[in-house]
Structures
1.
Amino acid sequence: MQREVQQELYRELHRTWPLAMEPQLAAQVPEPAPPLPPKRPADLAVSAPAEKHARASQPDAKIRTAALAPDREFNKRIQGELQRVLPSPEAVPEALACAERLAVIARYRPVPRRTANTPCTAVDLVQLDRVLMPDGRIVTLTPAPTLQCGMAEALGEWIRGEVGPAAAELGAPLVAITDNDSYDCRPRNNVKGAKLSEHGKGNAIDLTAVKLGNGRVLNLTDKRVAKPFRERMRAAACSRFSTVLGPGDPYHAEHIHLDLAERTNGYKICQWDVLEPGRAVAEVPLPPHRPATITQNEQKPRSRRF
């Protein structure tokens, strides 16, 4: 029963299951058998000798079983891939609900869970390609981040509800979120011996810039970008995500980190300093002109030393 539930979840909700398979498996999906010809009319039935000859020409049961063996082996491999892709049976109901919600606001592809030969455990992963805005426009994510479904849903809602409207006030619609970093099996801040990063669970993303329809690219940590826009991004991010890190944190000075880490009593971390626009560096004054008269010592030739 467990296997049937998992298959149904994957086939009915994701509806793109070959994309999650390894390329060589997807390429081996057998084509459907051609339809059988209509039954022969009774008046043209073969005679007894001809019928006997026809039966003799048919392969016996052992040969037919051997001919079907490759299909069974292929199906076995398919089942193995499905087990890698799908969450545990206990997580099926929530995965089902999340997949339905995410399909309404975004376009995504399921990703095999990452558990083998790694300290990271990431299930219910998706690759988030595009977010569908309320007005029908599309916002792409480049590169497409790999995230847990819940994190992908939160990111999509944030883009739809906050980033898009704020970008529109700058004179052009939002078209892309660029320079993303998502699933990565590593310790926090890449410090050896530190706790597992939320990136290793598919529960975090690092964002650098947004792109507008007029071609303008806005770095979220650039002091030259309009301060009201950056302040609005900070407020919206800190209200939706449990961890927000940016300028002011030594490891996130050039990008914004967002995650949904679970903490006691719902404690949140919001450390993103919206910096003031930088002042122009004053020109360094040139040294004063050398006096016209020079001392007698300076006129004497100096010997070279090696």
Note: DSSP finds nine helices and eleven strands in the chain.
2.
Amino acid sequence: MRTVMVSGIHPDLNAPIPIYMRTSAFVFSNIPIIGGMILSAPTPFNTFFFQWLNQTYNAGLNYGNRNASSTQTSAQMFTSYAIAVTSAIGMAAGLKRGLAPLMRGREGTMFGSILNSIVNFGAVATTSAMNCVMMRSGELTSGIDVKDASGETIGLSQTAAYYGIQKTAISRAVYNFPIFFIPPVLVAMQAKAGMHTRPGVKLALEVSNVAFALLVSMPLGCALFP
């Protein structure tokens, strides 16, 4: 019970972290986001909407789990959010345009699904890391609290902030790999086994594939660093 309670309490603010900003809510929050990104038709509107939705969620996750011993104004946070969202949409659109000749005529095929995953992974992995850096940039300028073994604050450190943000940003990029490459492989295997005979069954399996990939990705990303 204590572990569950502590996981939902911000260590600096000593206040509950909003439910959707907790890492324990990662899988449930991302099923509609990643599912829509992978399963919806790769139209410009869908690309724009789901990249915006994903980066908005990432911004909330990064803000909810920030080091609150540093300060950042609302204007700085809004600027960081705007840069992260714009970068994600721009990168996804650029990758889609670059891969368009390869994608033409291959929509709905295994190869087309992998190309779509490459586009989404490239955009999301890069900008998820950027989102983390931008939303927590205030820590780099003001530093974060450094504590001794007894938990007493002994000073502020920009170096500690740098290493903390660097490791978080790397984990944010890495955990996106299973999310975008496990589902297409599972879909191909299920289709080959004749499991997609009914639209309802096909949709249920595709959503389950996304949920499974999310369950794999978060522990993998968190386990990269102590």
Note: The chain has a mean pLDDT of 81.
